[in-house]
Amino acid sequence: MTLKPHIVLLPFQKKSSGVPISRIKWHSLLSRTYVTHVPPSNAPQVARTRNIGIIAHIDAGKTTTTERMLYYSGYTRRIGDVDDGSTVTDFLPAERARGITIQSAAITFEWPQKPSEPESADLVESVESGTEPKSALSHHINLIDTPGHADFTFEVRRSLRILDGAVCILDGVAGVEAQTEQVWKQAGEWSIPRIVYVNKLDRDGAAFGRTVKEVASRLAGWPAVCQIPWWEGGEGRFTGVADVVNLRGLLYPKGGDGKVIRVFTLQDLEKANPKLASELKRARIALVELLSEHDDTMVDTFLESNEDHLAVPAMAILSSLRRCLLAENNRVIPLFAGASFRNIGVQPLLDATVNLLPEPRERPDSEISIGATKIGLQDLLIGKLVLPNADSQASKRGRKHSATPSVPPAHALEGCALAFKVVNDVRKGVLVYIRIYSGSIHRGALLYNTNLNVSEKATTLLRMYASDSLPVQSIEAGQIGVIAGLKHARTGDTLIACYGSKVVPPEPLDRLQLRPIEVPPPVFFASIEPNSLREEKDMQEKLALLLREDPSLHVTQDEDTGQILLSGMGELHLEIARDRLVNDLKAKATMGQIEIGYRETILHPSEAMTKIYDRETAGQKGKAGCTATMEPYNTTESQSIEPPPSPQDLEAWSHERDGNLVTVLTPKIHQDNTSHSSKDALLSPNLTLPDLRTAYLNGALAALSRGPGKSYQVRSVHVTLTLHPPTHLFGTESTISALAHFATIAALKDSASKGGTPLMEPVMDVTISVDEASLGPVVHDISSSRGGHAIRTARRRGDQTSH
Ligand SMILES: Nc1nc2c(ncn2[C@@H]2O[C@H](COP(=O)(O)OP(=O)(O)OP(=O)(O)O)[C@@H](O)[C@H]2O)c(=O)[nH]1
What is the per-residue pLDDT for 360? Predict the structure, then answer.
């Protein structure tokens, strides 16, 4: 089979050296005319959609690469520059001022550019039958540019969960860096297929071979080298790439914008640059060998090609790479080369994202939860879920328990989306970025927020092009879009649309939540004060908006001083939050010094402290009680800690949160709501056992949020709350929660009276990678001036750095 590249080779030109060189314009095929037409479709097809993220260490060149992508796709007419603050994606003033990406920006563009003439049916058929690469047809790319700084890890995680694939950019000089390993691991947690782009190969000290080795050792995979760098004269200037899949050289004329590329076939290359040609052949052999180890079809193709590595068709290699990349537990990492700043290598990278990374339907079913039940969304839609009624909220709403299990009315679900980002736009107001996981969301649809239990109307739907937007009528499954004007939705909320615009979806769809992201506890805080009393309300509103945008920020109020405290993940995180609040949202407020979020703990176990509530409220008799005991709890040994031994008729339930363990002990409740020791109904009719546990847990957590010493959060304690029938009966959820709160505070005070509440400061385990020569000074610096301890130094395999 001969591979027809989706580029037109212009007639050979003879250079003075006599070497034939073909000259192409990337995607110039798009100007061809065709006879048969595909009917135009308004909704972009899911198969032609890629939801792609760019992940990397800070400064690896994510924004620079994104700017080139936008330029080559025709979205921008000039190339934006990070260094003069003229990029499209880093559009926040703070991002432009600092030259770093803070918020992920979602941008949509077409790659290759949509042709002026409709695509021919022949071409579509060739792509569908696998004789032409997918990149021969225009695709809809939703690109998320993510921040690289460690303080914005949460922002990266939030973007990662909605991606179908990712491009990991490496700095060709620095290689695989600490944050690269981190984000790589995080992307792995969501099983996101990833390709690697080695950038900055134009810089002095760039080492492609070493970077490939680091990909193998530090990202724990098998690098499938799809391109090798083309250095002028073998070691000089970086001038292009040799394409291992298609066996050709792509030379970028110096100083150009990268749109014109000279293509060399292998035969051309053998004459023009024999060294590169032989490297290219060796790389091809290695690629075919690697794929054969992971993909049986490649073994067959290799045998059919008379065991000639060079004769294996390019399309077979592309398909094999794709199969490996999409396989469960994949370890093959396709690797590309370039220098985005010099406009080298970006178009082939775009082709690779289309050809290798999956479309939304090729991803595993998205995990959802309905109460404590976890299931795939598609499984829910095809009726695989049967919920036991104990888990249902029926009892909460005063409905009687029913013996028959309930099947969720999945057919009522019109659309299900995740709000993955909230941004306040100066002109357009609050924009909520959503990814649709099922069905579609139409303009005017009533959306039920299952996290907040509120409904709101999607009056305006938009497709975003960085800071520009285009109104649309609907957003379909697999797509990313924006809803403007929502008043409540926060980052991470699940939004549900039901047929018939029901205000509350039928049970249990009202509790359907797409897998949430754990928000890590904050470690730094600062006070925020309005400049005058009149500004307080406005500041509070703007803080609320900031929290909708970024759930890793927390706002609390000191009960004694009334001071408002803003806490976050790091100093930079809080500084940026202040910039957003004061400069962008124009709140008239001042932020105090950034301080460390200490924690309080206890040293001794407490006595059992019981609190009883026995009173008539609104004509109803109520009686409830709770006993709390507390003991030190070592989180590092949490695996080995078992729930405390409980008497035979008691049942233990434990929950760990922010380094504390809360155990709730209740009698074993029989089906008829009685227990072993009593024939009376144990729980009031409006209360289920899960409700009771949640109420206890909330009460205990509220008590632990403020220590008795210096009002810092309490950590490393184990609270045990016990419900004793028949004393502790008939409370409502809020009285039970309040009792658990008071009982826990009493236990905390009792422990504190025995040995005080020592303060704990956050300690981080940090891995520092340095070259061997700098090891001594760095260790000295850490221990002498920064009070740190180097726990271990080790040499990375196959690399000159120690950590
Ligand atoms: N020499 C060279 N410099 C590059 C290249 N790509 C990016 N840079 C420079 O590297 C610096 C960082 O580039 P960015 O694109 O902002 O990197 P980033 O990964 O988006 O950075 P953050 O958003 O802060 O995480 C800028 O000064 C770029 O001009 C390249 O291919 N070659």
Answer: 92
Atom 2 (ligand 1) nearest CA: 200
Residue nearest to atom 7 of ligand 1 (CA): 61
Q: Between the CA of residue 696 and those of 451, 655, 670, 690, 693, what are the distances in Å?
A: 20, 11, 20, 10, 5
Q: Radius of gyration of the chain from Cα atoms?
A: 30
Q: Is the pTM of this model over 0.95?
A: no
Probe target for ligand 1 pocket from 103, 341, 342, 576, with the most ligand atoms within 8 Å of CB: 341
Pocket of ligand 1 contains residue 83 by CB under 6 Å: yes
* The pLDDT value given to residue 647: 62
Q: Does the beta carbon of 59 sit less than 6 angstroms from any atom of ligand 1?
A: yes
Nearest to 352 by CA among 309, 310, 322, 314: 322
SS3 assignment for 167-210: EEEEECCCECCHHHHHHHHHHHHCCCCEEEEEECCCCCCCCHHH
Encode pLDDT of 200-213 as tens digits.
999 999 999 999 99
Looking at the predicted structure, is the pLDDT value of residue 392 above 80?
no
What is the per-residue pLDDT across 664-702, written as a single tens digit (0 to 9) for each?
888 777 666 666 666 666 666 667 777 778 888 888 888
What are the extents of the domains in the chain?
A: 22-39+46-260+333-362, 367-380+409-514, 524-597, 617-760, 769-802
Q: In whole angstroms, what is the distance from residue 559 CA to residue 771 CA?
A: 49
Architecture of domain 22-39+46-260+333-362: 3-Layer(aba) Sandwich (3.40)
| Cα 557 to averaged position of ligand 1 atoms, centre (Å) | 40
Known binding site for GTP: residues?
56-63, 145-149, 199-202
Within 10 Å of residue 11's Cβ, how many Cβ atoms? 7
367-380+409-514 belongs to which CATH class? mainly beta
Q: Is 258 in the pocket of ligand 1 (CB under 6 A)?
A: no
Q: What is the CATH architecture assignment of 524-597?
A: 2-Layer Sandwich (3.30)
Compute, in angstroms, the gap from residue 104 CA to the centroid of ligand 1: 16
Whether 584 has a pLDDT exceeding 70, the answer reads yes
Nearest to 629 by CA among 728, 756, 720, 739: 720
Q: Does residue 44 have a pLDDT over 50?
A: no
* Residue 233 alpha carbon to ligand 1 centre in Å: 26
State the distance from the centre of ligand 1 to the C-alpha of 241, rounded, in angstroms. 20
* pLDDT number for residue 394: 43
Q: Is residue 95 within 6 Å of ligand 1 at its C-beta?
A: no
ipTM of the complex: 0.98
At 199-254, the pLDDT tens digits run: 999 999 999 999 999 999 999 999 999 999 999 876 678 999 999 999 999 999 98
- Ligand 1, atom 14: closest residue by C-alpha: 61
Which residue ranges make up the annotated binding site?
Answer: 56-63, 145-149, 199-202
d(Cα 727, Cα 725) in Å, to the nearest integer? 5
Gap from CA of 95 to ligand 1 centroid (Å): 13
pLDDT classification of 197: cutoffs 50, 70, 90: very high
Quote the ligand 1 centre to 206 CA distance (angstroms): 14
Q: Is 374 a residue whose pLDDT tops 90?
A: no
pLDDT at 292: 97
Distance CA 772, CA 751 (A): 49
Residue of minimum CA distance from atom 27 in ligand 1? 83
Q: Is 668 in the pocket of ligand 1 (CB under 6 A)?
A: no
Q: Has residue 461 got a pLDDT over 70?
A: yes
Indicate the SS3 state at residue 116: coil
